[in-house]
Design a protein that fits this description.
Length: 161
C-alpha cells in the first residue's frame, strides 16, 4: 500500500511539474510575441501640435497610423469620436528601429486622446489605445481606420533616437 501511495504521489508531482513548465512556456511565448509592440509609443507634442510615434525596438514597424479621439459632446459608448486621418499624413510606411517621427498635425482640444495602430516585423497588427494599453488586432491597419487603399503616407523622415 505504501508503495502504491508513493507511485501516485510521484506521478502527481511529475504532472504538476509538466503543467507548471507548460504555463511558463506559454507565458514566455506571449511575452516574446508582444516584445516589439511593447516598445512602440505615441504621444502629442504641445509645442509643435504634432502626434509623434517612437520605435524603441531593434526592428522596423510598418504602416504605423496615428489617430485621435476627440470629445464628442454627444452620448457615445466611449464619449469620443474618431478624427479622420489627414490627407498626406497620419501613416508611416516604415519606422526604422530606434527612430521617431511626426505623423499628423492635430488641432488639440482638452481631453483629446491619441491612438496608434501598426504592424510589427513579424506581421502582427497592434493597437495602442487612448489609455496606452496594447492589444493585438484581428484586422489590418488600413481596415481598422476605414481606409480603402494604401495612400496618404506621411512625407516625413524619421529621426534617430
Amino acid at each position: 500500500m505504501a508503495t502504491f501511495a508513493a507511485v501516485v504521489v510521484s506521478l502527481l508531482a511529475v504532472k504538476h511539474q509538466r503543467d507548471r513548465e507548460y504555463l511558463l512556456r506559454v507565458e514566455e511565448e506571449e511575452r516574446q510575441h508582444r516584445a516589439q509592440a511593447s516598445l512602440i509609443a505615441v504621444w502629442y507634442d504641445e509645442r509643435s501640435h504634432w502626434l509623434w510615434i517612437e520605435n524603441r525596438s531593434e526592428q522596423p514597424i510598418y504602416d504605423a497610423a496615428a489617430n485621435v479621439l476627440l470629445p464628442s459632446g454627444k452620448p457615445a459608448p466611449d464619449g469620443h469620436v474618431h478624427m479622420p486621418l489627414g490627407a498626406g499624413g497620419g501613416i508611416l510606411r516604415v519606422l526604422p528601429p530606434r527612430h521617431r517621427a511626426p505623423i499628423s498635425t492635430v488641432d488639440w482640444m482638452e481631453n483629446t486622446l491619441p491612438l496608434l495602430a501598426f504592424r510589427d516585423a513579424s506581421g502582427n497588427t497592434w493597437q495602442r489605445d487612448q489609455h496606452g494599453e496594447l492589444s493585438e488586432m484581428s484586422t489590418g491597419v488600413f481596415e481598422h481606420f476605414g481606409l480603402t487603399s494604401k495612400h496618404g503616407y506621411s512625407p516625413f523622415h524619421p529621426d534617430p533616437i
